[in-house]
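User: Fold this, then the next.

Assistant: Folding the first:
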Amino acid sequence: MLPPCRRLLCRGIRPLGRWPSRSAMNLGELVSALNDFASLSLAESWDNVGLLVEPSPPHAVNTLFLTNDLTEGVMEEAVQKKADLILSYHPPIFTPLKRVTWKTWKERLVVRALEHRIGIYSPHTAYDAIPHGVNNWLTKGLGACTSVPLHPSAAPSYPAEGTHRVEFCVDNGEHLETLLSKIKGIPEISSVTTLPARVEGEEQTRVSLNCSQKALLEVVALLSKNSLLYHKTEILLLEKPLLPHTGMGRLCTLSEPVSLLAIIERIKRHLKLTHIRLAVGMGKTLESPVKKAALCAGSGSSVLKGVEADLYLTGEMSHHDVLDAVANGISVILCEHSNTERGFLSELRDTLAIHLQNKINIIVSEKDRDPLQVA
């Protein structure tokens, strides 16, 4: 007979003390990695994202705890499971806190987090925008389809310095050198280039420069001293380039049109729901084909408004926005706000494990659930 320890190994069970260990990550290192996974610059301007609660350093993270909503019940679960950092998709701190007491539930979350040295991080709309985020996960409920963002995200910075480009032609000679000298003396001007040009049969020099909004005013003031030069000036507003496959919402084109009824069943299976709320578009039935579907996780009214599609899929919409969609022949499926988001956490756990090179333990809350239920 094999010794006890050897019997355990033969059955694929490791004895105590032999489990493969994960090395903890410093909180700053982990937050940096999370920001690399989804740049916070992609979040909406009204949002409150990033590290919201930070225990005093040094703070090592062995266990990352994922939840859609951080309620008091979920916080208790995080404490019991010895979480070091909570990643809450929805930011538990949204409006400013004037005090941190035991009086309100959101204040109590902060108190409990700090008492147990648990950090809180929220990505929210940054995860809505990324190609591998919440909305991309939601498209999988429609079946085989291609999708593009409804509102594409711009890159966080310009490809070149400055927000404006100024171009003009000037006669060659001493005036050119004097003008260039004055232009180069203006702060926040970059990429000043000159090229030979022929204008109305005359040899001239074409000047191009990039500048900030503030510097633009000084450049225009300088050029306006010569009315002929000023009227030949072109001013271009530089735009940040759009990021591929990145942005709010998705417009999905199904590989093959299917009935509205079939789409409903697919979505219920994907979101693990027994029911959804449905508004059938004017002139449509459950057998009407769906070829294009516009979707937005959470509350999608502002993102979906005005989009041409056979179907809108989101968590919640205002009554009047639903009426508008129906009047335009667009069917609407509502699944409740967090039901369109929560299922993403399991996929996120696996994706983050790879991104973080399996350095820490990542678990998904078992207490987190939609606050609404059918009675």
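Now the next one, as you asked:
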Amino acid sequence: MAEYENTNDVSAAEPSKLSDLLERGWKIFEEVDSTNEPLASTSIQVRVKRGIGMLEEASRMVALLDLFSRNEELEEIATADLKYLLLPALCGALTMKQTGRDKRLKIVQTARAYFMDFLKRCKEYDISHFELPHVTNENASPDESSTAKATPKPCPSDLVSMAAQRQAKIERYRQRKELEARLSDVRSAVDSGQADDEVSRDFYNLNVRRWVTVCLEEIESIDQEVEILQNMDGLKQGAAKQPVQPARPPMKPFILTKDAVQARVFGAGYPSLPTMTVDDWYEQHRKRGAMPDQGIPSKVGVEEDTDPKEREEADKEKKADDDDEESLLKARNWEDWKDTHRRGYGNRHNMG
């Protein structure tokens, strides 16, 4: 006990600095937790880092002063020192406010370590009855590893474990609401500075018990998020190792029919599919030199497709338009001959 008294004397040597760091860091967390600004904004992230720095500095000072010991009971801790039990929980809560997709796995793992430190200390002082979560750190001590083996994580496929887990969540939620209601009653007296030692001690005890429920919920959600993040990293690494497959050529259209012979005779029952693409058609006509010129169809091959009589009439009209004397004379003689001879004159094939 003499050593403990000396510790209290050391802590009293500079209580303002230590308490000031805790209060400022706590205030930053409450402001960030209740703000409407985007969490990823620069101003919020700067305040989060500042608050984490303050709380970590206060935690180092508490470790140097050796305020808490495993050989003590909760009643032996001074009322002024009870609030420093919250340092790891506040550090973890502010760490969870950090953003960064590339660093998300490291962030949640760091926050989980803070929450576990807080829960272990509360378990040592028997502040609240709860089951300590399993240890995921590979570098854990043998005692922690044995604790993890003694309390394995419940399998999701076990319906009994799932029901027990759900009931534990409901109980934690009920306890949290009850503790928050009691905290609201004594907070005004503590904030005004008129609370006596008993009211202040009750206030910090309620805060510690409330944070126990918060940390248990946070660790449960962190474990689920870590599993998802690790699976995502594995998928990314697997995708990076896979060779790049060459691009496949486009497949030609095909028809599924009941009878291939019937389809060839009667058709497929719907309009035929194109046998070539637009690019293939364009390339084929370009090689033949039969490309349309700005919307005007080419005249290549027109003469081959027209009827001989129509071609002869067209030639006559063209010559008449060109004022050919021979054509004009022949046309006039033909008109004169038709005037003196009736239609069908000289036709002896149908005389009988």
